[in-house]
Amino acid sequence: MKYREYFSLTHPQQRIWYMEKINPHQPLHNIGGTVKIQGEVDFVCLEKAINYFIKKNDGIRHRFVESDEKVHQYVE
């Protein structure tokens, strides 16, 4: 089993978690958008770019675990 270091949530994260808990099906904190690409897409290159972005940005790899009404986070 892989060792994970767990962290407490910041106060803003706790507020977001609480709002999501009482409003589970309302995307209160989601930001949407679209991009229109004209021309051919190199999907291999696009996949590499997305994976690189995920690897370099810890916030994208945060995972949250809830137990006993407390929530903690770790970076995957």
UniProtKB/TrEMBL annotation:
Pfam families: Condensation. GO terms for molecular function: catalytic activity. Residues 7-75 form the Condensation domain. GO terms for biological process: lipid biosynthetic process. This is Condensation domain-containing protein. It comes from Bacillus wiedmannii. The lineage of its organism: Bacteria, Bacillati, Bacillota, Bacilli, Bacillales.
